[in-house]
Design brief:
By secondary structure, this protein is mainly β. Helix content is 0%, strand content 50%. The chain is built from no helices and 10 strands. The strands form 2 sheets. Strands 1-10-9-4-3-2 form a 6-stranded antiparallel beta sheet, with no helix packed on it. The chain has a 4-stranded antiparallel beta sheet with strand order 5-6-7-8, with no helix packed on it. Strand 3 and strand 4 form a beta hairpin. It is globular, with a radius of gyration of 15 Å. The two termini are 22 Å apart. The relative contact order is 0.25.
């Protein structure tokens, strides 16, 4: 099953929208690298990820106590406990527990963003 979820103009890099697909709530996310679709539930305790934010991740610098922010628009943060997921890497968590978001296949046809019931097997659709 495939269904149009939105158009390319509906999403700018760093944006996310919630949609219903095949009876399930999903989120469509866009980074500078592409567009991605995930089940709208955190694997930790089921929070709606659509209530979270897409941002970046802090990284240590050479100076103690100093941090820089990197990967803006690539990290999805759960609204309940702050778990961070890399949308550009299949929804893998940034923590060692290796939990992962359930990802759906995306394809771009013209300006349309299409989601498929097939589980993702290859690289995401590029913007």
């Amino acid at each position: 099953m495939e269904e149009k979820m939105c158009t390319m103009q509906d999403l700018r890099p760093g944006d996310m929208i919630e949609r219903t697909f095949s009876g399930k709530s999903i989120i469509i996310c866009r980074s500078e690298q592409g567009i991605y679709a995930f089940l709208n539930r955190c694997p930790h305790q089921g929070a709606l990820l659509s209530k979270g934010k897409i941002g970046g991740s802090p990284a240590a610098t050479k100076n103690p106590g100093e941090y820089c922010f990197q990967r803006e628009g690539e990290i999805l943060r759960c609204p309940w406990h702050g778990r961070e997921f890399d949308i550009t890497d299949g929804g893998n968590t940034l923590t060692p527990d290796r939990s992962k978001l359930k990802e759906f296949m995306i394809k771009i046809e013209g300006e349309n963003v299409i989601v498929s019931t097939e589980r993702k097997k290859s690289k995401t659709a590029q913007s």
